[in-house]
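Hi R.,

Here's the chain you asked about this morning:
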Amino acid sequence: MMARQVSGTETSGRSGDRLTPLDRKRELLPWRKAHEVTGCSLFWIPVDAFPPPSGQIHWLQEFFSRFHVLLQAKLGLRPEQFLQLKTIQQKLMDEFLGTMLEFGPMLGLSRRPGAALPSVPTEDDIRAIIEGKKTFDFGEYVADFCYWFLDSEEAKQRQIFLGHVVLAVLLLKPDPNTQPPPNYIPLQIRQDPVFRNIDSDRARARTYRMLDGFQAKSKELFGQDLKNNLQAKHVPFVVPLLQTKDFFEQPQEIEKCFSLFDVYMNESPADKGMILASSADLEDDLITLLAEMKQNGLQYGER
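And the predicted structure, written out as tokens:
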């Protein structure tokens, strides 16, 4: 597709590929930056398909591993990963069930900015489904629930789930309330055959992770109108589910988002790629990271 010129910038014309200045465009590839967006930095990377080809998924795995290390060192941020329930139902149920005990998923809600939640089936709907006059569509009646992992094995989780339109990542500052005190159970008791197979450190870590303050704050920001909604009334957190158009069309909602987290990543089929957004200017850091990857022989590869 031919590139188009807009106010001294160039785009390829594909969804999400907007307004990256020509002088830095090559250095940022395969990411594109949207300079029309104000108040944050927004980047987009095209994906040939979901799941991506092996070369692209290998590059993305390596990129996010290095990127998370960068954000930890530069800003002290930690990644929290969320899996979309509807996609799990369609594609990844075996993988999800096989890792539940290891990762400790906890159910909450993800939500498109300003979107109403689906209505529960009416009696007429149920009757029509029972009589075969209507096909039951899980997505028609169920909100966009998601799982948050109580075990923070983000590299292993990303290895399994990245690239399947299921993963969103929030990068937040540490919450001191999630740090458990020292384990005072005597070592002699922990080594007793009765308790040897019980990982008390892991159990305590999960318990304290449930005190993470992002949960209550997320409900204040994105769930105030859902207090009486049957599907959302008792969920512990509500996290945003964003596409590139939200950054252009709903700047006030995006401002709310960045009062919850500092960096956001989402796999977005509507944008035919992945989006990466940050409240801080990370362009120079990204260019440095990408140059290192190229020097290491890591090429993304696009059609």
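Residues 4-175+212-295 form one domain.

Let me know if you need anything else.
M.
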